[in-house]
């Protein structure tokens, strides 16, 4: 038995004009909201409350070092040393449709347009708030673990890299992706359901890089379905049951199960370079199972949810035993790895290879770079040398056979471009060991890591540990491919930033943590070198907020394009309002709702809210016009099972008003559609 607490809080941030984090596509900026983003927190403590472990899964691209440091600073000022570097795991689901701009290393500024304080603050505050809620609701309870296979939800997007791994190793596995879901179920001592954490390896990229609506993708949809089912009668984002669908070793795993096709010709481009005969690599895109990206998100999310529900209902294996956590900071540019008695190798200063610029079949790059480049290109090399400086011979040699595009470890202006100091962390909850990894391990990298950690526990008297990888934790260091995958330099390998022996270094480090946990010597682990915090003001290329304006004879919230009078289920009710920049609202409140769908209750002559902006059935679009004008369009995709009756759609915003040269205020307003009937 343990003391358990769960919490969920909004971490959406600004939904307009902020670049979305994930595809590194500068054109992909927020233009509205499909569904809110949440931080979900789980606290486990032993009954005498001497030890605690916190696991947080947030609907964001990844946890950045800046984000982690700010969260831990806030926790420290609230709770002293109850929540610390070693016992707090922060993991990102890896949605590619959340706001960016929360990074302190310069590389991530290029596509995020700098460090965007409102974006960073929303995530920091949301994570801390979710932990607060869990902290305030601790009660005695039980943990159960279960595992099972999820079908039809992933493909390996670099199968030719996977095939480079030794045949003897590959023959031990039935698939080139990890299909296993691991699930941790929580209930209190009276059997009252509290929540669950599920770990499953797939990229949340069912929504592609043409999307401009902030959302939590397939994993978020699975959370939504589970929470809607358990929090009966509640609006999305409300209710006490918390269901987290967390990331794992998803490095080379795509949900776009139909595989890669040439957009222009329809033929397959499942080749080692992912290129098309006409148009090259930029034309090669993977397709999901649905008719469009919304439909694909729904199908994949539903598959994951159905499996989780089954595992949840059948979970009977109880988790018991002590809580122990271990954490170290490591200078990843300088780790010596003993491969065997005679052979020692080293990691490198960070660098990105050519194929990094190619992107993947889930989101291609901008300049027709191709994956699998083991040669550089004199044209791009010359541009890079002029702009950013040439990589040193030492770095070139260390990264071989990677042709270096950006020698980020040697780029320090205005701040370092990539982290040197990286977190490694394991938390053991009884027989479950959670390995918190700082990036995206490929399928085979993850298998090797889990196996090595399990073996380490076995050989130090803690057999039968369940070992699970939590992805995108604590600091972002791109990908971790195996040494063999590294040799063919597809995207994942080109993005393995500390060189060919990155995985071996991590395995050595995590084995050290596992050994310390198993032998109860965690207190003897060196803390390692503390990561830097750069003093960065609001350095950003995001356009400044201007005063909002309205068309002649109109006011904020006026309807420009009205709903129809009647709809049937499966149709789309749509209304357009005179709008204002949604960023004004984000800076006012964390819990701001942009819209409601309301149903008329004749008996009480009142309107009841049936949907809000966290619903997957509503879409909120913001369109920027000239000179401070803008429109908002709200769609409600009326779902099967909607009760017939009279409905209306409401819009809530804030407009920015200039009082004087130095003073602007945000003024709340609302708009309401005409009533319409659903028959």
TrEMBL record:
Keyword Lipid metabolism (UniProt): yes
Domain Neutral/alkaline non-lysosomal ceramidase C-terminal: 511-678
A molecular function (GO) term: N-acylsphingosine amidohydrolase activity
Note describing how the cofactor binds: Binds 1 zinc ion per subunit.
Gene3D superfamilies: Neutral/alkaline non-lysosomal ceramidase, C-terminal domain
Reaction catalysed by this enzyme: an N-acylsphing-4-enine + H2O = sphing-4-enine + a fatty acid
Active site per UniProt: 254 (nucleophile)
Residues in Neutral/alkaline non-lysosomal ceramidase N-terminal domain copies: 2-508
Domain of life: Eukaryota
Cofactor: Zn(2+)
PANTHER family xref list: CERAMIDASE, NEUTRAL CERAMIDASE
Family label: Belongs to the neutral ceramidase family.
Name used for this protein in its record: Neutral ceramidase
Organism: Psophia crepitans (common trumpeter)
Taxonomic classification: Eukaryota, Metazoa, Chordata, Craniata, Vertebrata
